[in-house]
């Protein structure tokens, strides 16, 4: 049955995507639920949203009880937060270390990583935060870890292609994340976290055979083979930037050159108003129009407040 969602619903969903704090997320979810048409076609969506809402309440409750500090809550930095998820020894820490040069422990025995650790990936003119995490198994999931996954802007699901266990690793990881409503392989749940599946240790001889077995069994799952000696690492960075679904906007003051370092990071689909809000909370009220270099038809074109910006636009806000 079609859901027939309204423009108000999509506006609230957009607000959810842009929300940076749990409080803003909660508010947007409540709005999504209240404006959504209630009928059979939206039952599953309603259930998904209610579940996410109660998870958010639980998380903020736990945070209060713990008196604030939770090592599994990783403060966001840079253009987006990408969190690794996978079984022991799959090569998570090695990947974080090679992509970010962060000093994380790498070892040939399981459970070397006990708490989340972060590093920044340099990508063109921005930095993306990468978070290494402790592993989980079918039987042991560190408490708090799913909270780290759920709070991420995107996940890298890691399996080790050099071992025949990679199939079981994929199944364990996917079912954990699906059961806890972190991801949604059908991509229907708007509040699910987007993800990429990576097959590591592609330099080892068994990798190619294992990869083709998985591809045959799970034709709908796209796996990017990588290795720390460089295989596919550049295209991985591009895929990570793409999945974050953000744009870079360079600010310009009247009569001055554009500021080409430290761009503003906004969600794809953001407008001039969204940019103004990011610059300063009370800017949108003062804003008259904006001049855009890049996506507009000609350089320095005046655009309305609801103009949709594109990656790498230069914008001068006119107040
Ligand atoms: N040959 C090869 N070995 C790797 C690669 N990535 C990781 N390893 C090895 O796999 C083992 C486990 O790596 P680690 O990053 O600690 O895994 P984690 O437990 O998932 O964090 C270590 O001995 C690494 O040196 C790779 O791309 N190729
Ligand atoms: Mg590790």
Question: What key phrases describe this protein's structure?
Answer:
alpha/beta; Rossmann fold; Ubiquitin-like (UB roll); 3 domains; six-stranded mixed β-sheet; five-stranded mixed β-sheet; binds guanosine-5'-diphosphate
What does this structure look like?
The protein is of the alpha/beta class. The protein folds into three domains: 7-65, no CATH class; 81-244, Rossmann fold (3-Layer(aba) Sandwich); 246-318, Ubiquitin-like (UB roll) (Roll). The chain has ten helices and eleven strands. The strands form two sheets. Strands 2-3-1-4-5-6 form a six-stranded mixed β-sheet, with helices on both faces. The chain has a five-stranded mixed β-sheet with strand order 8-7-11-9-10. Helix 2 runs antiparallel to helix 3. The chain is globular. The chain binds guanosine-5'-diphosphate and magnesium ion. Guanosine-5'-diphosphate is lined by residues 86, 88-94, 106-108, 112-113, 135, 200-201, 203-204, 227-228. Magnesium ion (MG) is lined by residues 92-93, 112-113.
Produce the secondary structure layout:
Blueprint (H helix, E strand, L loop, with lengths): L6 H12 L3 H14 L7 H23 L15 E6 L5 H9 L16 E7 L2 E7 L12 H7 L2 E7 L5 H14 L15 E6 L6 H11 L5 E3 L7 H12 L1 E6 L12 E4 L4 H8 L3 H4 L2 E5 L7 E3 L9 E6 L1
Helix pairs in contact: 1-2, 2-3
